[in-house]
Design goal:
With about 60 residues, the chain is mainly β. The chain is built from no helices and four strands.
Length: about 60
């Protein structure tokens, strides 16, 4: 599977590859640096073999 992250700010990760030897799900972990305290949404998009999109919303809060 070829996939990438896409954020509500227009940023996207490089394309990544994940090998599935059989059907199922896998967990991935990545980091996204936010621009400041506010609401964001981020999508994970599979590109190959077909397009599938999952989305999550989150709020970044800065504390001293």
């Amino acid at each position: 599977v070829v996939w990438r992250w896409e954020s509500s700010t227009g940023k996207a990760s490089p394309e990544n590859n994940l090998l599935f030897e059989e059907g199922g799900t896998k967990m991935v972990q990545d980091y996204y640096q936010v621009d400041g305290a506010k609401d964001y949404s981020i999508q994970v998009r599979t590109i190959v073999p077909n397009v599938v999109i999952g989305q999550a919303n989150f709020k970044a809060v800065c504390t001293p």
